[in-house]
Amino acid sequence: MKKLTFRQLLTVASMLFGMFFGAGNLIFPASMGQLAGRNLWLASVGFLITGVGLPLLGVAALGISREEGLLELSGRVSKGYGLFFTCLLYLTIGPFFAIPRCATVSYTVGIQRMLPETGQTLALAVFSLVFFAAVLFFSLRPGEILTWIGKVLNPLFLVFLAVLVLRALTAPLGAVADIDPTGSYAAAALPTGLLEGYNTMDALASLAFGIIVVNAIRGLGVEEPGQVAKSTVFAGIFSSLLMAVIYLLVTVVGAQSRGQFAAASNGGEALAQIAEHYFGPAGALILAATVTIACLKTAVGLITSCGETFVKIFPHGPSYRVWAVTFCVVSFLIANLGLNAILAYSTPMLMFLYPLSIVLILLTLGGRLFGNHPTVLRWTIGCTALAALVDLLRTLPGETQAFLHLEGVVALAQSWLPLCEQGFGWVLPALIGLVIGLVLRAVRRS
User: Fold this and answer.
1) Does the pTM of the predicted model rise above 0.70?
2) Is the Cβ–Cβ distance between 323 and 306 less than 8 Å?
3) The pLDDT of residue 264
4) Domains of the chain, each with CATH number or no CATH
């Protein structure tokens, strides 16, 4: 029975880490560190739960379930739900939000600061065109993704990141204990950190990247389902540990920078300030290279997983090549709407998809306790979806809420749903759905 060698396992783990870790994974902990100050450790616990723990559980759930991918896993609820959830999740972490964000973040953080203020619209268009041309080049060679990301782009990214982080840690700009927390981090650092971890989209990506990891492991000669599942879980553990270490280091660097700078408007600006302080004009180049490579490898992983999944969902439809080109074109167009427009509408979608993903992951991991019975799955997911829909409406931009006349609905939900204002209004409905499902299963069995 073929097993992966330790070196092969590390390569697969490196590939998985490379697909997970984009520029957003640098921006959000840097910003969190600046805002959390001395409360960064409590905030980091929350961030690591949703930014590292959930992705690890997602990879483990796919491995343990021995399903081919998200379509089959979510299809345990029902065939229709599986199709709906899979398409929505892949489009969210694909061409509608996450992939365009890769290009706009690369430009905003790494390139924009080196160009004059005039002509930024044209510059973004040119940069994103080159960016997606590179993404398409790598994505049209899905069989080589293990080599490109695991052995080339990811090590290159880690080298650039190490130069910046180690320099900052060896010459800190301030003491963390002296930095006062601001905003919600002052009184609610843990729950704020939990929600901040949503922004990485990694729990969603863990469900999407499963098919790439499984295919990479099989491409190395492992065919026995149990060994594929075990190798998938081990790769997830290795990649998660590396992510956790980098998150903590970047958070500390962000907090220390408050000794020299005021809190920046976003993590990208914070990283730019830090890079320029330590390296001068060369800092902008180091940051640009780090961010662009981080976003490039993540975008390649997303295009590849989206293309392969839609080929599976629509076997008689377009080929993988057509899907890859289409997703790159759509991502290019949306990227040129600008980072603010993308972020404004990605948050509501994350508030809808994250509860559904969390519940699906937990139900999969605990499925043996109730025999993966569809009744339990449907009631739990159904109740969660209703509450998650409220979170989606509640976090829409203010002008959109006013246009749709949602103020009354949102106010009513916040008054009746426990933890709704904190972003966890789905927890109680999910538990109620689980109890109902278990009771109905017991009644039917008796």
Assistant:
1) yes
2) yes
3) 84
4) 6-344 (1.20.1740.10), 366-446 (no CATH)
